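Our preliminary data section would be incomplete without showing what the modeling component actually yields. Below, a chain of 167 amino acids is followed by its predicted structure, encoded as tokens that our downstream tools consume directly.
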Amino acid sequence: MKKSSISTAVLAALLATVALAGCKKKEDTADNNAQPAAMTPAAPAPMTEAAPQPMTAATGVMVSSVTVGKTAAADKMVTSAALFAPKDDIIVSIRTDGSANNANVAAKLTFQNGQVAGEQNQVVNATGAETTNITFKNANGWPAGKYRAEVMVDGKAAGSPQEFEVK
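Predicted structure:
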């Protein structure tokens, strides 16, 4: 019987050691997992910085949409167009939200090789949802090719660039 009691005691001690070692291992794993979890919020920051910033801290204006079209309705809304004729006006319609005093909203058209085809800006004073239209005209006609419209608020990229073509 004493052999059985000693064997049982040794077995119990061995199991307790294994159980404690197992718990220790889980703590280490939890600690290792805690660091990446703490670092997770920092990971999206570079992605956000790489994408165009929709809001500027100085003005609190956020670009909610950018539309390129040929004509504007009475409410300044523009129907999206992807194809233009050389003599068409090109309207970049910028929908903003937020409050702004003297925010500089700009639109730039670039031609297929990166050459600037036009650049204009307007000063916006807003206290809510607003639409700002910037119209580009070319008396000589737009050269055929692909174009890109980009929007900036106070010099910082905002909204999604829009691509269109002149044929």
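Confidence is low (pLDDT under 50) at residues 24-58. The radius of gyration is 31 Å. Preliminary results of this kind motivate Aim 1 of the renewal.
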